[in-house]
Amino acid sequence: MHRVVVIGSGFAGLNAVKALRRAPVAVTLVASTNHHLFQPLLYQVATGILSTGEIAPPTREVLRRQANATVALGEVVALDADARSVGVRLADGTMRSVAYDSLIVGGGMVTSYFGNERFERFAHGMKSLEDALALRAQIFGAFENAQWIDEPAARAAELTFAIVGGGPTGVELAGQIGELAHRSLVAEFRSFATTQARILLFDGAPRILPTFPERLSARAAAALERLGVELHLGTTVADIDGESITVAGPDGARRRIPAHTRIWAAGVRAAPLAQIVADATGAATDRLGRLAVAEDCSLRERPEIFVVGDMMDLAGLPGLAEVAMQSGRHAARVIAARAGGDAPPRPFRYHDLGTMAAVSRTSAVASFGRLGLSGRIGWLAWLVVHLAFLTGFKNRVTTVVHWAITFLGNAREERAI
Ligand SMILES: Cc1cc2nc3c(=O)[nH]c(=O)nc-3n(C[C@H](O)[C@H](O)[C@H](O)COP(=O)(O)OP(=O)(O)OC[C@H]3O[C@@H](n4cnc5c(N)ncnc54)[C@H](O)[C@@H]3O)c2cc1C
What is the fold, at CATH topology level, of the domain defined by 2-32+74-111+269-340? Predict the structure, then answer.
């Protein structure tokens, strides 16, 4: 039987495995987490809306009915492209080797601090479940701590949330922290008003959501400002420490702002696995460390190795869940055709299904080609699309319940810290 090893249980890897369910192959999915992760909803875990299980279903459970798929937990730390095997480090530090005939690499991205690695110690990233839980503890902990602080400047610092990055993640986080401060938590504190919280969103670009049409960016900006979010555009981060953030505004003047919660939602680069693959195969990487692939998503140097999802550098495609799903499925189709002796499918073409960002409780922007939606209608589109793409029927049901609690009732159920 043709052996396929898939690395990564993200959108790309998981969809590749599922697309191989009827192929005459034996699949082994190796991933460094035992769960899939719906990253676009990480911010809802960080702000107390959803529980971890809803966005991170166990991979074994997702694939339990797929008889030709085996799930293995471990981190791929080596690749021998000549011997066609990957070296996997297990949780206890021991090593195993897994042989393949075809390899699909879907290792995704990690947070990038643009060379300022010391920022990592002082600013929360937003890439993993651990990141979201740490941020949840930080956000709700800040409100708890503020109750004990009488000195106005110290309380103001405790209640200042500085977010770097005006893309969808930064916008969604800013909107939800604004909702917490101005709606959900208002009735719960006695000694101070949660509306004193300052939510600052910094970006070097002149507008938020730069990949969206200008009109939608402007609508999202207005919705955020209605929630009390302060937008600091054309502003770059000069320094971050354990108590503050220092920024340089459009005039170049530097300002140090005391802020006890600092969030980095500004950049990503390929996970270290990409360099392991590049070193083993001679494949080229771009400035984000992504691996250059041919039109069928395979490496030119090693046609039996495919790179899919965020880690793939192909035709300038962006790091989006839909690109990951489609490329994962495409690699699976090529492998199934080869294993079955069929003609190869046509080259990979990405079908753009649009992008969206939820700005507040019932407001979102959505861009589908020339159609742009905002406000409540945008939010309804957001709701339908996210429900459709959540993994697992049970998760959809509990997510709907949690969304009803949050969006209709204004409450936050998932905030144990
Ligand atoms: C906060 C946030 C919000 C986002 N919002 C949106 C959005 O609204 N819309 C949208 O389309 N996209 C969004 N994205 C992007 C989207 O989530 C990614 O494009 C998508 O997750 C990429 O899928 P992937 O499978 O390539 O990588 P990932 O989902 O990152 O999965 C990578 C997998 O590889 C595994 N892995 C990595 N290295 C190793 C190793 N050495 N050994 C074993 N396993 C390894 C990881 O454990 C993981 O299972 C968002 C991303 C983030 C972080």
Answer: FAD/NAD(P)-binding domain (3.50.50)
Using one digit for the tens of pLDDT, what is the confidence trace for 316-342?
999 999 999 999 999 999 999 999 999
**Are the C-beta atoms of 407 and 47 separated by less than 8 Å?**
no
H or E stretch at 55: helix 52-55
How far, in Å, CA of 40 to CA of 49, rounded? Answer: 13
Answer yes or no: are the C-beta atoms of 261 and 139 closer than 8 Å: yes
Atom number in ligand 1 closest to CA 37: 29
Amino acid at residue number 359 = V
Task: Determine contact, residues 205/166, Cβ cutoff 8 Å.
Answer: yes
369: alpha, beta or left? (left if phi > 0; alpha if psi -120 to 50): left
In this structure, the strands spanning 312-313 and 109-111 are unpaired
| Strand-pair partners of 163 | 201, 263
The reply to whether domains 2-32+74-111+269-340 and 117-266+355-408 share a CATH topology is yes
H or E element in which residue 6 lies: strand 2-7
Residue 136: its H or E element: helix 129-146
Ligand 1 contact, 76 CB (< 6 A): yes
Q: Are 375 and 226 in contact (CB under 8 A)?
A: no
Catalytic residue among 172, 179, 322, 414: 172
Domain ranges of the chain: 2-32+74-111+269-340, 117-266+355-408
d(CA 67, CA 89): 25
pLDDT tens digits, one per residue of 42-73: 999 999 999 999 999 999 999 999 999 999 99
Q: What are the beta bridge partners of residue 398?
A: none
Residue nearest to atom 38 of ligand 1 (CA): 107
* Matching CATH number, 117-266+355-408, of 2.40.50.140, 2.60.110.10, 3.50.50.100, 3.30.450.150: 3.50.50.100
**Sign of the C-alpha dihedral computed for residues 284, 286, 287 and 290 taken in this order:** negative
Q: Active-site residue 172, yes or no?
A: yes
> The pTM is what?
0.96
**Token pair of 322 as six digits:** 């839909």
